[in-house]
Write a structure and sequence with these properties.
It is an enzyme of class 2 (transferase). The chain has helices spanning about 15-20, 25-35, 50-55, 65-70, 85-95, 110, 125-135, 150-155, and strands at about 10-15, 40-45, 75-85, 120-125. By secondary structure, the chain is of the alpha+beta class. About 30% of the residues are buried. Bound molecules: ribavirin triphosphate.
Amino acid sequence: TGVAGTGNERSFIAIKPDGVQRGLIAEVISRFEKKGYKLVAMKMIWATEEMAANHYDDLKGRPFFPALVKYFASGPIVAMVWEGPDVIKTGRKILGATNPQAADVGTLRGDFCLTTGRNIIHGSDGPESAAHEIGMWFTEKECSAYSRSIDSWIV
Ligand code: RTP
């Protein structure tokens, strides 16, 4: 184990319906994987509007909420749990700013999309929401705890 120590923080990352339709699944997975994070759960699921509303419960009062719910339920998403040191905050950096026009080039949103309403991917914004979202989309049995032989080269 390297000096940075290990970290088993987990984040919920979802490729939204536009990301799936546009063929960006492998690109998203690749960026998290190459960074060194570990994929511990993944499934494709077509959320109902009820599931989408539940997922975005904290945004219920916003004017864009109905459109957001329709968008998120408009096709299958790829729901994932990624694990590793600081994955919540660093994962948000890999995603880039919510508004793709403000997102830095080199981030997923900065490189692959143009508008907030079609920003291809979701990532948990803190430890509480990560735990809440992981529990919402996955059972504990669906999240694998496993080690890889390369782990000691990463952490
Ligand atoms: P996400 O949860 O999807 O990772 O996005 P976020 O935390 O960066 O942004 P948040 O403010 O939580 O918004 C969630 C999603 O709602 C849509 N949105 N539309 N003004 C708008 O039209 C607007 N603002 C937000 C985006 O899809 C955003 O990712």
